[in-house]
Structure formats: structure tokens, C-alpha cells
Amino acid sequence: MKQHLGRQSGVQNVEVSLIDGKVEITPKEDGQIDPVQLLKATYDSGVSVAEMDVTARGKIVKDSSGNLALQVEPNRSFAIVANELSKGLDSLVGPQTIATVRGQLYKKPPGKKQKVDTSVPLKLLILEVEKRE
Amino acid sequence: MNKRVTLLLLLGCVIAPVSQAQIKHVEMRVEGMT
User: Fold this and answer.
1) Which CATH fold would you assign to the domain A1-47?
2) Rounded distance, CA B5 to CA B1, Å?
3) Nearest to A49 among B23, B24, B30 (CB)
4) Which residue of A has its CA nearest to B31?
5) Fold of the domain built from segment(s) A51-133
6) Best residue in A55, A60, A70 to probe B by mutation, most B CBs within 10 Å?
7) Cα separation of A130 and A111, whole Å?
8) Which residues of B touch A25 (CB under 8 A)?
9) Could you report the per-residue pLDDT of A14-32, keeping only the tens digit for each?
10) pTM here?
């Protein structure tokens, strides 16, 4: 799995902890990494992903429906799930503010083992707002 | 000297937008690993 993930685009380093089933991925300097691709690659290597958390730096924007999203690249953004922490991001919408947040991008639905459904866009559940610039 | 400062400023303008937004770290919890 380590080798498989290490071959994915934008991945600099992969650390796997067999004891607690934790996989840490460090993106390359350009940060152009695709979480969906990582989910697929992990599944393809024979294990299922229970949860995926990311720390990302980006602009807080509003999509066409008026929902908050974190834009991490010009052509990649993640819709933000509304919670108590996301309410505080409303005031940061705009091109001037960059926020660093930690959030959950994927959580396996309860129940039987199943393949990651990559047809559904990933949504970011904010766990912590680390920095506002 | 002024040329160097100008060059540094120009480089900063080019590099800054790239470093502004990015995924910095990914952590997964996986199941079924042996």
C-alpha cells in the first residue's frame, strides 16, 4: 500500500502505522494532490478507508448555491458541511483571506465493507480552524 | 543592489500565489491491513 500510494501524483511521502491502521501522506511542495485518487488507490491496494482527514490551506468561497467551500487549487474545491465551526468561516469569504483548516473529507458509512463511492463529491467537515490570514 | 531587491520582489509575486492554497497533510484510518 505504501508503494502504491507513493506512486500517486503529488505524493511526497507515505507513512503507514500497522498498529493503529493510520496512514499519513505528505503532499509535494506544490500541494497538487487528489484525495479521491488516494481513496481509490488505497482501496485498490486491498484495504478499506474508514476515515480520511486533511489539513488544507485555501480560500473560503461560496458556490453557485450559496454554500461554503474551501478552494485549495484554482480548479479544486470542497463543499463545506455546515456545523458550528463552519459558521465562523462565513465572515472569511473572499479572495483576500486564506484559511488553514483541518477537516474530515471521508468517513465510511456504518455497516458492511464496501467500495468507496467516488461518484459522490467529497465534502469537508471542519474539525478545526487553525489559521486565518 | 536595487536590481536584486526588484528581482526578489518579482519572484515573491510569482511564488506567493502558488503557496497560498494547497492540501498540506492527509491522514487516513484504514481497515483490513495485515
Assistant:
1) Alpha-Beta Plaits (3.30.70)
2) 6
3) B30
4) A48
5) OB fold (Dihydrolipoamide Acetyltransferase, E2P) (2.40.50)
6) A55
7) 33
8) 25-28
9) 999 988 999 999 998 876 8
10) 0.79
